[in-house]
Write a structure and sequence with these properties.
The strands form three sheets. Strands 1-2 form a two-stranded parallel sheet. Strands 3-4 form a two-stranded antiparallel sheet. Strand 5 and strand 6 form a beta hairpin. It folds into two domains: 73 residues, no CATH class; 116 residues, no CATH class. The chain starts with 5 loop residues before the first strand and ends with a helix. The chain is of the alpha+beta class and 205 residues long.
Length: 205
């Protein structure tokens, strides 16, 4: 095997970003992937019937699509197309009910019924400043954020536990939405900072 400047193991979003950035700096990079296709958790494949494509690890990929880094790359020139579903988030509830987050904030608030007003009040500032929020969340923290007011507001809410955030609501739909998003943190929902994911996912819906 020829000698390389860098070897990156795994071609998920982070591995791809690392390999691309190293190559941009004129390094000879070897990217190693065990699977048949690259992409890691962002891969899509025909898993059931011919013509029916499924995401391997996720139903929606809001942070990948909104990523400042990936947005800076001409990925569309290489065939990448982000698919934005009409209903990006849904949580099944007992009795056949469902908790859903729609792309339209008002539609989601109406769906949450008694919790609609509280949900709208919580999420609306982050929807209005979604670009600044993602810039602050996904870029390296190298000093004062470019949107300090947005990030201060996010920190005040996101530093809480998901359990604490859910206590703002009385209905099952809003509470299940918080829990479902926070579960992506893969930690106890009474842990600090687990409220951050429900805020980010709702703002990007």
């Amino acid at each position: 095997m020829p000698e390389r400047d860098a070897v990156v193991v795994g071609s998920g979003p982070n591995g791809l970003a690392a390999a691309i950035e190293l190559a941009r700096h004129d390094l000879d990079v070897l990217l190693i992937e065990a699977k048949d296709t690259i992409g890691g958790g962002t891969r899509t494949a025909e898993l059931t019937l011919p013509g029916f494509r499924h995401d391997i690890c996720a139903a929606v990929l809001p942070t990948s699509a909104a990523s400042p880094y990936f947005s800076s790359l001409p990925l569309h020139e290489h065939g990448l197309e982000w698919v934005h579903p009409d209903l990006p988030v849904a949580q099944p509830l007992p009795g056949g009910d469902v908790a859903a987050v729609f792309p339209d904030l008002d539609e989601t608030a109406d769906h949450f019924g008694v919790d609609g007003r509280a949900y709208r009040k919580l999420i609306k500032p982050f929807v209005r400043s979604a670009e600044a929020l993602i810039d602050g969340v996904l870029n390296p923290v190298l000093g004062v954020p470019r949107s300090p007011i947005v990030m201060a507001r996010f920190g005040a809410v996101g530093a809480r536990s998901a359990q604490g955030l859910a206590s703002r609501f009385s209905g099952d739909r809003a509470r299940a939405t918080v829990a479902g998003a926070a579960a992506h943190s893969i930690t106890s929902l009474d842990s600090s900072f687990t409220a951050a994911l429900p805020i980010v996912f709702s703002a990007l819906a």
